[in-house]
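re: ur question from earlier - yeah i can do the single chain one, its not a big deal. heres the input i used so u can compare w yours
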Amino acid sequence: MESRELIEYLERKALQLRYHILEMVGVGKAGHLGGSSSCAEIVATLYFQWMKVDPKNPHDPERDRFLLSKGHAALVQYAALAELGYFPVEELKKV
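and the output i got, formated as tokens:
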């Protein structure tokens, strides 16, 4: 992927993560919109560009692991995992 193309792809992914965060915060009235949204680009870049993860093989011992210590931002990680296919996106609305 060309660098401009890659940047646009990652920007779209970050925007999609923010949409998911809005859905989760709006439904359950829980979570922190700002904390989750502020790191959407970082999470999108990690999960959709750099990290070695495979939802079809989640227990691969060679997989990368991501520890999000910014606990109030957990919604962005849930959104990324759903976008990757670890669980159905519809589950985000049940948070």
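The first helix runs from residue 3 to 28. not sure if urs matches, ping me
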